[in-house]
TrEMBL record:
One of its GO terms (cellular component) is endomembrane system. The gene is Vnx1. InterPro entries: CaH_exchang, NaCa_Exmemb, NCX_ion-bd_dom_sf, YccF. The keyword Ion transport applies. Pfam families: Na_Ca_ex, YccF. The chain crosses the membrane at residues 135-161, 236-259, 316-337, 349-370, 376-396, 417-439, 546-566, 598-617, 629-649, 670-689, 695-716, 723-743. The lineage of its organism: Eukaryota, Metazoa, Chordata, Craniata, Vertebrata. It is found in: Endomembrane system. It is a multi-pass membrane protein. It comes from Syrrhaptes paradoxus. This is VNX1 protein.
Length: 749
């Protein structure tokens, strides 16, 4: 554990310990950087923040100390990793948790070192090998793998020439039934008789050297039988065992926690089974036994390691590696079986949606790698261009399909997905991070000023402030005691919607007279505001220009926010990147992906993303028409949050390390990009390719979005939170999901 830095105190003539200045300095010391990204030795103390000076406290005894400005000190192994860490705190840049460079081996914990080590280390006795994970291996693999070795051993004994390999399989049958606490070693080659005879007596009475012609004949006979046995082994025994171990390796690798079993099987098929049988020794380790001389090939103590979720291959998380074949299966199955002979549309839609998750991970990794290895301008362009490519690809393909089929339901699904992403990133992402982070940390603090920038932009893009007006009084109650809420001031993406509610004509599909009186009450169904009154004069003359104006102003506000946070007011993100100066520390960056490699992966992932989005929109029609669930609910949940799962995982990892600022920024930045970049791009796209997408949302979308943003701003007001506030956000999110679940489907679906 990293030792905590001593809290600065304002001694001397400064104010008392309980003053606002002291409390503010103590709060600042509680703000921690990304401890998971620290490349320093675990026993190296963190750089403490600047202490509060007495003079400052004298001048500002009841105000915020100027020297106590929040400063985040980041410690990185190299310059590339430092750039990645600093980009995490910049507005408009993708927040990425994983390393983009290879971490020095000596800086890693013993748990991580064990994940990447080979199964050839003999350790001291660590207790009993009868564990739940080892029993799971027996139930999954051991019960059938051991009899297979017995069967192959019988076949080898029948061939006679393969008898040595039969004895090897017999020994390995017992090993693979329960391999824990046992070792497979490569025996040393014994010295030849020529070497022994050259150093010993050569008298015939003592057993002199064998004549040369006899030695050649014996060697030839032995070599013949060895070669014949090897041919029989490679023809009959080895293929069956290699296939079995390959099946075990793939299954264990996909289960992640059983990766030690995968390593065990892979090493067996690649080394043990290809050695001469007399060179393989299988033995059980005892506590007091000294290991034999020779190379240790396999030594396994447990089959399950729960920490393998941290395992990475060339910088790629193991889950993203395991989901990559799913992308290939989805593309092949989707475009080869176009007539649904092999699978149904529901299966193809599910596969296409699941394939978006690893592709979004690769896109995020590529963006972080390019930004960390490039200057600020290139990083800003890459983040602005490809930061929302996952969502935009799906939305645009859905709108194109809906335009070709003349189906307005696709446009409504896109609006539901946009609203679901906004509500989920405002409520679910920070709420979930607060709950999970609050389990480990009693109270978490964050930079409310930096969070206020994205919150202000989000508030601007969604709606203005909600005020109160005083009613004239009801039932004798004084007027000042009856506040009533004023409507939201129309602003941002919902301004055209509120404009249409005011000036549009309400049109209903069917109305019934309830009181049987022509002047009585009417009950109407399927009502909506018609913007095409008088041949569309209201829409084309008033609403459409407003839509285009909003679509141009929102990206401009986004650019102003970038300029504000990264140029003129960069002290809000006062970041100091320092290197580790330790013996044996590597300062040279060994990047996982170079810039060109990251660019190629980014383009290929974007191309595959487009194909998967095309398949998802192609096979979503049966789900929309045959499902009894509201189309609102499908768009708000599945289509909105599945592509954001990698971002949610990043936010949870930051929250567990008491870095809630980045967790909040992840959700806020996605929501801001939805309102200020994605929606304007979709509106401008309709200029070049006419679709049914209009910037007029349903009342449910408007109220859910505005309420979520107001609640988020209220929670983030004081710069601190706990698991209870996170629970409130999560509960409100699920309440909104219940509303969408029971809501009727939108008109046109």
């Amino acid at each position: 554990d990293v030792p905590k830095a001593p809290e600065p105190r304002c001694d001397g003539d400064g104010p008392r310990r309980g003053s606002l200045c002291s409390r503010h300095c103590a709060a600042i010391n509680n703000v921690q950087g990304d401890l998971g990204d620290l490349g320093c030795h675990p026993h190296r103390p963190r750089v403490p923040p600047a202490p509060c000076t007495p003079c400052c406290c004298q001048q500002h005894s009841e105000e915020v100390c100027e020297s106590c400005v929040v400063k985040t000190t980041l410690t990185a192994e190299n310059l590339v990793e430092a750039n990645k860490l600093s980009n995490n705190y910049k507005f408009g840049f993708k927040k990425w948790k994983s390393h983009v460079t290879a971490r020095p081996w000596e800086d890693r914990s013993e748990i991580v070192k064990e994940l990447y080590s080979d199964l050839n280390v003999i350790r001291s006795s660590g207790g009993s090998t009868v564990t739940c994970g080892n029993v799971l291996y027996l139930l999954l693999f051991g019960w059938w793998l051991s009899p297979l070795y017995v069967l192959v051993a019988a076949v080898m004994f029948v061939t006679v020439v393969g008898a040595p390999y039969g004895r090897l399989c017999w020994r390995l049958a017992g090993y693979f039934l329960w391999p824990f606490g046992k070792v497979i070693q490569k025996a040393e080659v014994p010295k030849s008789r020529d070497e022994v005879s050259s150093t010993g007596e050569t008298s015939p009475l003592l057993g002199g050297p064998v004549p040369r012609r006899w030695r050649l004949r014996c060697w030839a006979d032995t070599g013949y039988w060895q070669r014949a046995g090897a041919v029989v082994w490679l023809s009959l025994g080895y293929p069956a065992l290699a296939v079995a171990h390959g099946l075990v390796c793939v299954t264990a690798w996909l289960l992640v926690v059983l990766i030690p079993v995968a390593k065990l099987s892979a090493r067996t098929a690649a080394r043990v089974l290809l050695l001469p049988p007399e060179r393989v020794l299988v033995r059980r380790l005892r506590m007091t036994e000294v290991p034999l001389e020779g190379e240790v090939i396999l030594c396994c103590y447990r089959a399950v390691n729960p920490y393998y979720y941290k395992y990475a291959v060339d910088g790629i998380n193991v889950f993203a590696v395991n989901l990559l074949p799913l992308v290939l299966v989805t593309l092949v199955l989707g475009y080869v079986d176009s007539h649904n002979h092999l699978t149904s549309s529901s299966v193809k839609f599910t596969l296409a949606l699941l394939s978006i998750m690893p592709l979004s991970y690769y896109i995020g990794m590529a963006i972080a790698s390019i930004s960390a290895q490039s200057n600020f301008a290139v990083g800003a362009v890459v983040n602005a261009t490809f930061g929302s490519i996952t969502e935009l690809t799906f939305y645009i393909t859905a709108l194109i399909k809906g335009s070709r089929e003349g189906n307005r339901c696709y446009a409504e699904i896109v609006k539901s997905a946009l609203t679901g992403t906004l509500v989920g990133c405002v409520l679910l992402v920070p709420g979930l991070c607060m709950v999970i982070g609050g389990i480990r940390h009693q109270e978490q603090r964050f930079n409310s000023r930096s969070a206020g920038v994205s919150s202000a932009l989000l508030f601007l893009s969604v709606g203005g402030e909600m005020g109160t007006e005083v009613s004239p009084g009801l039932g004798g109650v004084p007027a000042a005691w009856v506040p009533t809420p004023c409507p939201f001031v129309p602003a941002g993406v919902f301004a055209p919607t509120l404009f249409s509610k005011v000036y549009g004509k309400l049109v209903c599909g069917e109305c019934h007279n309830v009181t049987q009186n022509p002047l009585g009450h009417y009950l109407c169904h399927s009502c909506h505001f018609d913007l095409m009154e008088n041949n569309g004069t209201l829409y084309y003359s008033h609403v459409q220009p407003l839509v285009y104006t909003v679509s141009l102003l929102l990206p401009a506000a986004y650019l102003i926010g970038l300029f504000f946070t990264l140029k003129t007011h960069s002290h809000i993100y006062d970041i100091h990147v320092s290197d580790c100066h330790m013996p044996g520390h590597h300062h040279s960056a060994v990047v996982h992906w170079s810039r060109w490699r990251a660019l190629v992966i980014l383009l290929l992932s974007t191309l595959c993303m487009s194909a998967c989005a095309d398949l998802a929109t192609e096979h979503i029609s049966p789900i929309l028409t045959n499902s009894t669930i509201s189309q609102y609910f499908i768009g708000v949940t599945v289509l909105a949050m599945v592509p954001e799962l990698p971002e949610i995982v990043n936010g949870i990892q930051f929250a567990l390390q008491n870095n809630l600022s980045l967790s909040i920024e992840i959700g806020n930045c996605i929501a801001v990009q939805v309102c200020m970049l994605q929606i304007p791009i979709l509106v401008l796209f309709t200029i070049f390719y006419p679709t049914n997408f209009t910037l007029v949302f349903s009342d449910l979308h408007v109220y859910a979005s505005m309420f979520s943003v107001v609640l988020m701003n209220y929670i983030f007001m004081d710069g601190k939170c706990d698991y209870f506030q996170g629970t409130v956000l999560v509960m409100v999110y699920f309440i909104l999901l219940a509303v969408y679940f029971f809501a009727p489907s939108p008109s046109g679906c």
